[in-house]
């Protein structure tokens, strides 16, 4: 929080409600500080079910959410019908 200044990049904070390692309120405080310094909606905060390191954060729909956030930052317009299927290679 002490290092947030006008040059802070846009940020997306996602935190699990049941996180026992890091209180989710820390992410809220950070997002608020960034928005206070850099302008409203410069940082986004999203709360999801789960513990610290929950597999839910790695689900396809959340990975797509993160990629959409990055696209917004860089002004990339993609077809929203993103194909997230892939093939696992075995040896």
Kindly state the percentage of residues in helix. Answer: 25-40%
Q: How many E strands?
A: 2
Number of helices: 2
- Large-scale geometry: flat
Q: Determine Rg (CA atoms, Å).
A: 16 Å
Report the major sheet. Answer: 2 strands, parallel
Unreliable stretches (pLDDT < 50, length at least 5) are none
Strand content bin: 5-15%
Distance between the termini: 46 Å
| Classification by helices and strands | alpha+beta
N-to-C SSE string, H for helix and E for strand: EHEH
Q: Whole-number average pLDDT? A: 89
Major sheet: arrangement of strands = 1-2
Short summary:
With 91 residues, the chain is α+β, with helices and mostly antiparallel strands. The chain is built from two helices and two strands, in the order E-H-E-H.
What does this structure look like?
- The termini are far apart.
- The protein has 2 helices and 2 strands, in the order E-H-E-H.
- The longest helix has 15 residues, at 24-38.
- The protein is of the alpha+beta class and 91 residues long.
Write the layout of secondary structure elements.
Layout: E1 11-16, H1 24-38, E2 43-48, H2 60-74
Parallel strand pairs: 1-2
Keywords for this structure?
alpha+beta; single chain; 91 residues; two-stranded parallel ribbon
């Amino acid at each position: 929080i002490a290092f947030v200044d006008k040059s802070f990049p846009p940020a997306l904070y996602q935190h699990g409600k049941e996180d026992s390692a890091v209180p989710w309120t820390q992410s809220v405080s950070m997002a608020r500080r960034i928005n206070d310094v850099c302008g409203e909606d410069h940082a986004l905060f999203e709360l999801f079910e789960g513990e610290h390191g929950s597999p839910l954060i790695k689900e396809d729909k959340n990975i797509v959410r993160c990629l959409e956030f990055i696209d917004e930052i860089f002004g990339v317009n993609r077809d929203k019908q993103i194909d997230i299927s892939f093939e696992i290679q075995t040896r």
